[in-house]
Fold:
Amino acid sequence: MSPDLAKPLLQIDRLVKRFGGFVALDGVSFHVMPGEILGLVGPNGSGKTTCINVISGLYKPNGGEVRFQGRSVGGLASHRLVHLGINRTFQVPKPFLPLTVRENVEVAAAYGRPAEGPSDIEAILASVELDGLGNKTAAELNSVQQKMLDLARALATGPRLLCVDELAAGLNPVELDRVAIRLRDLARGGMALLVVEHLMGFIDQVTDRVIVLNAGREIFEGVLAEAVRDPQVVEVFLGAAHVG
Ligand SMILES: Nc1ncnc2c1ncn2[C@@H]1O[C@H](COP(=O)(O)OP(=O)(O)OP(=O)(O)O)[C@@H](O)[C@H]1O
Ligand SMILES: [Mg+2]
Structure:
């Protein structure tokens, strides 16, 4: 059944995540539509990665709800979420270093698409510009190539919602442009994306809308052009810049 394009693919509602007494997510609510790229921005430690970790099943929420295609999925294990169509990349990728690039993607495809046809591994590698590197081990890749491999691994599972965590960090301007185009292509094909990024130029280029987090709370929702004029957002970012 094709997803209903008029309804949110992902809806999170008053999401709470605590680590001991520390509240990393303090009632965060937002949605992502099919084919939409939502940016998730905020200073270091504001809860962006934690949000992805909860949505992708790495952490169980302590409160609130995660709904995917209308179904409550909060707290489900990662592999079940991958099978439902949620996958993510990691801020610090951890590929299987001794395996080849191709094997890394094959493992992800086998794990993530048990009921579907085989992924076209070569096409996925080409789409992230790793064609020609399929026989190299992941250990031989540089950090940008490892990020692209992480993206390839996620794509091999056929996600409907893809969460990307600081994929753009460390890329040069040409690589940034290519990745931005690739993400837009994925969204044009109907995939929903949640993009965490510090590089505002990249966020501006790829997102339809942004959520700004500060200390585990949402302080802004809307387009980036308005976010940069919002006094609370400006204060949070200037404050962070002064501290950093
Ligand atoms: N597993 C954990 N155990 C304890 N505290 C954690 C854990 N994961 C995250 N935190 C804390 O939760 C807060 C939010 O962290 P998170 O990694 O989500 O921030 P972020 O917005 O992704 O930051 P950055 O931009 O630096 O990646 C931080 O204070 C962090 O130290
Ligand atoms: Mg992070």
